[in-house]
Amino acid sequence: MEALTDKALHGLAAGEAARPENPDWTIDQGWDRYTEAEHATWKTLFERQTRLLPGRACDEFVQGMRDLPIGADRIPDFRELSDVLMKRTGWQVVAVPGLVPDDVFFEHLANRRFPSGNFIRRPQELDYLEEPDVFHDVFGHVPMLMNPAIADFIQAYGQGGLRAQQLGCLPQLARVYWYTVEFGLLQQGDGLRLYGAGIASSYTESQFCLESPSPNRIRFDLERVMRTHYRIDDFQESYFVIRDLDELLDFTRIDFAPLYDAALRGSELQPGDVLAQDRVFHRGDGSYHRQQRQRNAA
Question: Which of 16, 37, 101, 226 is the most interior residue, by most CB within 10 Å?
């Protein structure tokens, strides 16, 4: 059996030395301290990603990007983003030094504050960065926060995360976030489209998730997703497809406790598993990950 690949989705990565003075881990974005080189890195990332997303990103992402003060020439100012978000959906963007403890993360989301790293990756890390930076957090997440359904769903996720910690079910809830907010696909009239921030901010995975023959694309089922491990080290082996963003809003009205019980009673599923009862949009051939395993074994 392949090694399990997921871990705590949020968690503390920076260590005690990076702990801010504020108990909620917020810091000043320090927009005036960004260098020309850092703005140039943003510009490179922004321009190549916006060239890729037409025909791949969902309409709501595209509209959110149009309505926000986000452009190629400079890293966005969180205060300007928050002014627009607050009027539209009541959200704001707050700066943090990187990954924060789970309870801090959930508390922010539950109060419609989206914590974003204030740093930007180095030029040699354009294609992969383990810890989310300002490009992933702002370019990937913030446009979708302009949508009322996503705005309400992520707030409910924060509230649910605090409850899941008490129930010992945080891994199950984290998988829901991973396969929706980070790596979700949805059905649109003209085909499948991406809405997850992990895909929207990735040059390579934004193409792989929709066009590669390798991954599975499976109709989203809440309890099934709670049982499914995810990859943190490479492209996903399976992507889960929702009907539309309103389906996420439907999940906020569901009592998750029975689903947690069912998920804990059921078997754990590997990222590439396909079940007989799955509704499959595309059965992947697994070619990409098979080649990766062969390469690693050589």
Answer: 226
Catalytic-role residue among 60, 107, 108, 141 = 141
Which amino acid appears at position 160 of this protein? G
Q: Is 229 a catalytic site residue?
A: no
Q: What backbone phi and psi angles, to 5 degrees, belong to 114?
A: -100, 115
Q: Report the distance separating Cα 182 and Cα 177, nearest Å.
A: 7
Catalytic residue among 38, 60, 107, 182: 182
- pTM score, whole prediction: 0.93
3 state SS of 282: strand
- CA 88 to chain centroid: 21
Q: Which residue has the tokens 């996903």?
A: 236
Write out pLDDT tens, residues 25-74.
999 999 999 999 999 999 999 999 999 999 999 999 999 999 999 999 99
pLDDT average, residue stretch 178-192: 97
- Is there a contact between 147 and 157 (Cβ–Cβ < 8 Å)? no
Residue of 108, 136, 229, 289 marked catalytic: 136
Contact call for residues 188 and 60 (beta carbons, < 8 A): no
Taking residues 233-258, report their average pLDDT: 95
The reply to whether 238 belongs to the active site is: no
Q: Count the neighbouring beta carbons within 10 Å of the beta carbon of residue 256.
A: 22
Q: Supply the DSSP symbol for 139.
A: I
Q: Cβ–Cβ contacts within 10 Å for residue 29, how many? A: 22
Q: Does residue 136 carry a catalytic annotation? A: yes
| Strand blocks (E) in the chain | 92-96, 113-117, 185-188, 191-194, 216-219, 238-242, 280-282
From the list 10, 108, 201, 202, the catalytic residue is 201
Please say if 141 is a catalytic residue.
yes
- Give the pLDDT confidence of 78-111 residue by residue, as tens digits: 999 999 999 999 999 999 998 899 999 999 999 9
